[in-house]
Amino acid sequence: xxxxxxxxxxxxxxxxxxxxxxxxxxxRATPSDVSDALANGLLLVDYRTRLDxxxxxxxxxxxxxxxxxxxxxx
Length: 74
Description:
Arc Repressor Mutant, subunit A
């Protein structure tokens, strides 16, 4: 999956979600490894703890990244 397709996919996942999406959600939705997108700042992660005490990694698009801004502008 190329970077533009990944941006569109994550944007759609964010639109359809009732709340935050997790890194696991993104990884499950794409056949590609997203580590490059994380390393290049296309995707941002936030490490949290669920109410039950289990760790979770939230994931979102970096809306200030030039490619994300270009592909998601209205």
